Amino acid sequence: MSVHDGRREPVAIIGAGCRLPGAPTVDAFWEILGAGVDTIAPMSAERRALDLLKSINDSAHRQPDDREGGFVDGIDAFDAHFFEMSPYEAVRLDPQQRLLLETVWEAVEDAGLTPRQLAGSMTGAYTCCFVSHYWDLLTTAGMTDMHALLGASRYSVAAGRIAHLLDLRGPALGTEATCASSLAAVHLATQAIQNGEIEMAIVGGVNLLLCRELDMGAAEAGLLSPTGRCRFGDDAADGFVRAEGAVTVVLKPLSKALADGDRIYATILGSSMTSNGRQGQSLTDTGTGGQEDMLRVAYRAAGADPGNLDYVEAHGPGTTEGDTAELGALSRFLRTEFERVGRPLDQRCVVGSAKSNVGHLEVAAGLAGLLKTALALHNRVIPSTLHVRTPHRVLDEEGCPIELALEARPWPERGRPAMAGVTALGTYGMNAHVVLTEAPPRNTEAAPAHHDEQPMVLPLSARDPNALRQLASAYADTVDKAERPADVCFSAGTRRTPHNLRLAVSGSNPTALAEQLRDFGSGGRATFPLGKDLKLTGEPRVVFVFPGQGSQWTGMGRELMAGNAVFAERMAECDLAVCEELGWSVIDRLRSDEPMTTLDVIQPSLWAMQVSLAAVWRSWGVEPDLVIGHSMGECAAAATAGALSVRDAAAVVCRRSTLMAAFPGEGAMWSVQLTETEAQAAIGAHTDVVSVGAVNSDHSTMLSGDAEVLLGIIESLRARGVFCRQVRARFASHSPHVEPLLPKVVAAVGDIRPVAGQVPIHSTALDHRVDGSGFGAEYWATNLRSPVRFANAVRGALTEHPNTVFIEVSAHPVLTVSIDDVIEAVGADAVALPSLHRDSPEVPSLHASLGTAYTRGCDPDWRQVNQGRYVPLPSYPWQRRRYWADPALQEQVATAVDAAISARDRVQTVDSLTRDMRLQLAAVLSMSPDLIDPTAPLSFSGVDSLLAAKLRSRMKQELDLHIPLRDFLSSRSLSDIATQAHRASAQDS
């Protein structure tokens, strides 16, 4: 058991989500509390249409339709697509569970957690829901099946649904203690954390008013207020008003929350649950003795002195009996405690109730009170309690230590941490109380320095295009208001889930970021294009490409050496290796304004740049699955792959370039817009002195060899209108020109010791995949003489994995055009990205390509990209659609699908069979066929094991197709299954 100052470790409330009357967000809830807003209102016409009692038993109406209460808008709508749920399942899911799913996600986001962090963790899910009247509607509509059974008949399933959604491995427990349910759930979760049973907990409660039968029962018992307001603390209080909503909180050990830099609303010191036993005259009598027991146990368990209590969020039902009992018990308990510590009566404990703002949420009431109190502690303001004309007589008793806050007031400063309690009382004598204190000061460790002009990249993602645009607009406002925009970028990368649709924007100041975000949000074009739907393309393959010469420029590397520790460290290592070989410093040459003109300077310098840039990419979490080197670029590729040590790779590039620089004779290299076959034909009889030195794409070839002979070939080609460009090189690599040098190369690098690398290498000299263990002396002679089969290397990578991100690791893009040409020829879903650009700021250039890589499915380690600390961010913008048990609507869909099935083409082709299978799936899912993508995996349509069984049965019955159940549960699409079924049918016939 962990301890804290001699007590069990406190538990931090690090995240919250809510949907409450008049308050769809946590911020909105605090706004109505702070402003003293009453959200009770008549039931709207739209809401009356959802009244289940009217649907189930119209003759049972005994109350008018204009009743008042705390209502939540849009309870019939849900973002099923986000939760990968089929419309079929969504319409059978109790709207209470839908609300819980959304507020759970919001709370997790608010806590700065991601499903990846939670997956497999010992995190508990604790939930409480009210009676599922939605099940009655499903029954009446004839829509009961296993999905309905799991979705609406058992409210305890909600905890398991949350655990499944987030892959939580702790307890998944549904609690039921009437109006104390949600606070009881908090108690159980807190104890489990303090006992070391779980690492974290997600606690949620929800209540919806879907049937008026309970209204009638409460009204007949005299519990409902005739005035439609909860007047807790008023001497003439006449009952409560029913309300609905959902609240979820995320709990975590305080020490862990502080270590992780979490935002903490408040801290739970301890809690209690007790029962009144036989202290009341009946089961439902309010027992004051039981409530005093509850308070004593809670503060003893918390190790907290109740004599220091500042505020109590009461159960506060606003009933005559209930208020008298609760206020009386609290007054007696605190009077004794205040006398014990000598606390004067002018320092009374304030008592209040959120029910005066939003009504009585019943099973979720305890969590609503907990959230209110946590926000009050966080903001150091005690909100007012509404509708009090004459304070309750208990408050007027002599020596009463408690009072109401009739106006919002600052939290009292008393030279000690603020402390509060929250109470929830159950109908049958169940009592629960939670002791809270203010969060300790946030880690005072200095935040990373922020400069007005600081390169930043902000990653966003969503599961729907409209959601992504709305999110971009919300982030624009957040960036504008941020004290440190870098913190927003850091938090967006490290504390949000990367979804399948992505956007990234970069800039050096908040104005640049916000402008791009607003442009995208309004439908314009952002700096980075919207990436492909990663659910369809899958995880990309990353290929690092290292060019030969041509990318150098004066000033390259200076910005990164000054501002990127990884680059500087790797460059220093390369510099030492080159200095040992050649006696001069690469770093000094990079800092010099003297142009690089000789091979023995250019090649070692470019090699050091490439190796250091590769280290930066890898430090950002972008790891290569394959490396490709072009000519001399294979030295950097070998070092990056681990086939050569930095010292051995430096030895190869330094010694070889020294030999090349001293080599006599005049050679030349020309890039021509010809195929390899056309280039060979152009060389004709001159193969003894001219060669195809490189094939970069289907229509880009390098000719290399004798300068004079080449000039004649080029003149002939230009006369035919062929594009030709001379490469700045006196040394004609990859041609007969270099053959006299090869033995010297072998002798010069005979002491290197290659090993099998950690990353595969596609050798452009050998034209096949290698592990690098053969990169000895002979290989580097072959590399110098053989043609560079670059196009084949790119084509091979695309053949294996069409969704590839090629990153050219160089000081300036030399090969991206050639890569794009091959991508276009192959028709692959790939992209080629540069690292730096000549004479351009280096970090922004890298950020731009990193952002595009992110939109293509790469998941960088954003902690290494953006420096900052966690700050709250906008929550996910739900894209809700209506899902309600409407038999007429279900019948309309079924009729439309049946008509389409009847009109289908009887001549079976793959396309027609795919259409038929799509119709059958639409019938099973009760949705329009137009909403089903036949090329996407069936799981994207929400097909689970239950629906797969129905689909298999329908395929057999309607289409005479015998398809194994496993095919419907795999990652295959309808198109794939239809193709296989059509092929099997053709073979049988």
TrEMBL record:
**What Gene3D superfamilies does UniProt report for this protein, alphabetically?**
3.30.70.3290, 3.40.47.10, ACP-like (1.10.1200.10), Malonyl-Coenzyme A Acyl Carrier Protein, domain 2 (3.40.366.10)
Q: Which residues form the Ketosynthase family 3 (KS3) domain?
A: 8-438
Of the GO CC terms on this record, one is:
cytoplasm
Q: Does the keyword Transferase apply?
A: yes
Q: Which GO terms describe its molecular function?
A: fatty acid synthase activity; phosphopantetheine binding
Pfam families the UniProt entry points to? Acyl_transf_1 (PF00698), CurL-like_PKS_C (PF22621), ketoacyl-synt (PF00109), Ketoacyl-synt_C (PF02801), PP-binding (PF00550)
Taxonomy, superkingdom: Bacteria
InterPro entries the record matches: Ac_transferase_dom_sf, ACP-like_sf, Acyl_transferase_dom, Acyl_Trfase/lysoPLipase, Ketoacyl_synth_C, Ketoacyl_synth_N, Malonyl_transacylase_ACP-bd, PKS_Beta-ketoAc_synthase_dom
Q: Which UniProt keywords apply?
A: Acyltransferase, Phosphopantetheine, Phosphoprotein, Transferase
Q: Which GO terms describe its biological process?
A: DIM/DIP cell wall layer assembly; fatty acid biosynthetic process
- The UniProt record lists the Carrier domain at 908-985
The name under which this protein is listed is Uncharacterized protein
- Give the organism, scientific name: Kibdelosporangium phytohabitans
Organism classification: Bacteria, Bacillati, Actinomycetota, Actinomycetes, Pseudonocardiales
